[in-house]
Amino acid sequence: YAWDANEEYLFKAMVAFAMRRYSSKSTTQISNVLLCNVTDRVSFWFVVTDSSKNVTTVPGSEVEAAIRMNRNRINNAFLLSDKTLQFLKITSTLSPPVEPSTPVWLIVFGVVLCLIVAGIVFLIVSGIQKHKKKKESTERENLEEKVEVTLENGIPCEALDLKAGHINGVFAADDDRFTSL
């Protein structure tokens, strides 16, 4: 966003606010915050002067401590974060690491346990399917061995059982009906 005189005023006000909160004195005014070497990329350095002496600057350690203590208020005023609003020589105030509600080892254990259970179920189901297929194929082979069907002219015919013989019912009728030759 554009850095203009209003933004500079807001920054000075936030630094004066931080100094007042830190030192518990109400002597720091907006006019005590001086901005120097402001560039187009919103890069500058600033100095805070002591209002009682009006010439001396406040030690850098006090300014750093005041900004560190009120860093989140300054960030929120500009709608920025520690990654976007950077103060050189002042370490960013990182929030404490987020602790998940469940421990990480418990999540990993649950995932591994689910994979093992899924693998066991897969092995059992595939074993049952193979057993069924094997049983069906043996039953088909047994049926094919018992009944051999031959096709003649596209019509299924039973194979002759050569050991027991085969009697054709047409010619097995009484011979009395027919005249002899």
Automatic annotation (TrEMBL):
Pfam families: Collectrin (PF16959). Keywords: Cell membrane, Glycoprotein, Membrane, Phosphoprotein, Signal, Transmembrane, Transmembrane helix. It is a single-pass type I membrane protein. InterPro entries: Collectrin (IPR042944), Collectrin_dom (IPR031588). It is found in: Cell membrane. GO terms for biological process: positive regulation of amino acid transport. GO terms for cellular component: extracellular exosome; plasma membrane. This is TMM27 protein.
